[in-house]
Amino acid sequence: MKAILDHVGIAVQDIDKALAFYRDALGLEVEAAEDVESQRVRAHIIPTGQGALELLEATAPDSPIARYVDKRGPGIHHVTLRVEDVRATLDHLRARGVRLIDEQPRPGAQSSLIAFIHPSASHGVLVELKQHASASVTLASRRLPWGDLELVSVHDGVFRLDGGAMFGVVPRPEWEAQATPDDRHRIPLGIRPLVVEADWGRMIIDCGVGDKMSVDERDRYGLDRARHLDHALADVGLHADAIDLVLATHLHFDHIGGATVRERDALTPRFPRARYLVRAAEWEDATHPHARSRASYRPDDFLPLAEAGVVDFHGRDGEIRAGVRVVRTGGHCPEHQIVFLESAGKTAVFVADLIPTTAHVRDAWIMGYDLFPMETLAYKTRFIREAIDREYLIFFEHDPRVSAGYIREEQGRRYVEQVL
Question: For the whole prediction, is pTM greater than 0.90?
């Protein structure tokens, strides 16, 4: 069991006076307040490097925080330890006779799961266990009507990548608060293609990692195939034969690996009725990789498509089907593109690796994998401002829990309002 100090909870009687000290006098940044209905408390998170302070303001006179302040006055209320799996930790403690307040986890701030240990077991200190939202992965297939379109979020399982590589120059204490790494420093990531249904047919944007990896590769990437794209399609009444068009945002293995399948000794298109639409310059880059990009492009993912004669190329930004428009962003790779889905005056955007997870809504949080990070920064800064102002629904391809949501901004702090 690995536990890391997450934050110290401080019960406050007068939130304005508390903020005058921590925010105004000390100059600490205070995140937007969040109401935690299960505990009838309003939480004000103050990041302080590896850990944080949490100012707790009662929202009901009979809440635990209100009773604490009435009895003892304001002050330190609890210490919170972050764990990877709160249920497993509770089992571990229960087996050792540790007295618990919570036998099962309950919802906490920041979409976390929490549980409290009784102070009698921890030498007079109330200890909270916290499983961060990104420490677990939520996979589900969901339909969303979108004007004349229907958007269907599906998935192709779970994999893990090095946390440092996923967040580039962001210091580990900062990104670790958003994504808990395992003992190999990898963080869990979803693989979330998007199906678009319209009167012109059925398209899937990207198609996951597929089943061609070796045992060693699956171990390296922590690839979990217990639930994959075939299951996800079946959950919404679809199957591979139902797809008419596969649109690639780019040809990296975790986005197009599912385009081909191995049958006996041959590699064949996974979607037998589909055409595969690829940006021509991206095909050129994928078939002529350099030392930095070679690991991301796997010929078995896309060359069999050309041999089968099912690839169509496009060379510019613009509408490829009614309501579906592609725009090159560059940055992650030279021809990386995102997909705008526009109908009935509404816009959704499948952002691929421009904003791979909800943690990446901060402008400077850019992957170390990006070949041209300053290009990513320039496009991303403009795009996120536009997405906030125009209320674009964003589909996140690699977030472990959130398929889609709106990017919001309050008092300079960005967050994602989850929809799917």
Answer: no
| The amino acid at 41 | V
- Of the candidates 68, 73, 43, 65, the residue with the CA atom closest to the CA atom of residue 55: 43
Residues 11, 153, single domain; the answer is no
What is the rounded CA–CA span in Å between residue 112 and residue 129? 10
CA distance 419 to 397: 14
Residue ranges of alpha helices (H) inside 154-296 are 163-167, 172-176, 215-220, 229-235, 253-256, 280-287
List the beta bridge partners of residue 148.
none
Domain containing residue 70: 3-131
Q: What pLDDT was estimated at residue 111?
A: 63
Cβ atoms of 168 and 373 within 8 Å: the answer is yes
User: Which secondary-structure segment (H or E) carries 187?
Assistant: strand 186-190
Is residue 215, in this structure, part of any structural domain at all? yes
Name the pLDDT band for 124 (thresholds 50, 70, 90): very high
Q: Does one domain contain both 268 and 239?
A: yes
Which tokens sit at 310? 């099912």
Chain-centroid distance, C-alpha 230: 21
Tens digits of per-residue pLDDT, 405-416? 999 998 888 999
